[in-house]
Structure formats: C-alpha cells, structure tokens
Amino acid sequence: MDKIEIISSIIAACATVLTGVYFIVKKLVSAGMNKEKVQRMEGRVSAYGAKQNECGERFHANEKAVSSLQNMESRVDTCEARQEKREERVYSLEKIAAETTQNLALMRSDFTVMRSDLAVMRSDFRNLEKNVDGMRDILSEISAWIMKKDTEMIPSLSARHSPRTLTQTGTGLLNMSGGKECIDGNLAFSFPK
Q1: What's the whole-model pTM score?
Q2: Residues 28-49 pLDDT 10s
Q3: What is the C-alpha separation between 80 and 145, in angstroms, rounded?
C-alpha cells in the first residue's frame, strides 16, 4: 500500500471517527440543550407555581378585603338607617317642642286671664263679705228686737246664733284634744257659783 492509500485510509478513518464524534457531540449537545431546556422549563413551572401560590394568596387577601368592604357597607347602611331614625326623632321632638311652646303661650294667656278673673272674684268676695257682715248685724238687731217683743222666741233664736253651742266639728275637736276633760275637771274653778 502505498503512502497515498495509507494516508487516504487514515483520512477516511479520521473522517469516519470525526463524523461519529460529530454525531455523538451533536447528540450530547442536543441532549444537554434538552436537559437545559427541561431545567429551564422546570424552573419556569416552579416559578409559575410560586406565582400561582402568590396569586392565590393575593386572591384570598382580596376576598377578605371584599368581605371587609361588604361588612363596612352593611355597617354604613345600618348607620345611615339609624341616622335617618334619629333625624325623624329630632324632627318629631322639634314638632313637640313647637307645640309645647304654643301650649305654654296659650297657658300663659289663660293664666293671665285667670289672674284677672281671680282679682275680680276677690273683689266680689270682699263685697259679699261686707254684705254678709251687714246682714249679720241686721239679723242680730232683728233677733234682739224680736226677743224683746216676744220672749218665747228667745230659745229658738239664741240656740241657733249663740256662740255657746258647738257644732259637730267643734265637739269632735274638743273631745280629740282632751279639752272636754280639762273643762270638766276645772269647771268649778272656772265658773264658781
């Protein structure tokens, strides 16, 4: 074999070996790239899972916030309803206060009228009292004149008008106060014979 054949055979063997190495390296590189791609994909999947967990936590936090907002809205609605009731009460109390003020004004005017009526009644009563006192004097004089003219009338006129006769109330007071025993015990001393 000649040198050219040997060199050709060596080149052919080298080319075959290099082609094999090339295919092996290519497979290794593609396998490495696939492994790297898989690792990248696993990293992305892990990151996606972490992001999904984070999104789930945010979702739950948002649900809690929405629930809190709904609770606050219901509280606000309740407070607004209470405020409306308070405003209605205040309005009714203001109405009552206005009516009371009106009634007080009417009562004041009625009281003023009653005072003037009372003053008139007092003066009328004083006039009546004067008239009754005058009639008593006249009756006393008439009784005295009748008793002078007709002595049989003395017991009937003096019994009705004499201060020596006690009324039922006077007798009750005398007995309750113990005055009867005092008078009976000191009768001989007070009125000697």
Answers
A1: 0.33
A2: 777 666 667 767 777 887 877 7
A3: 92
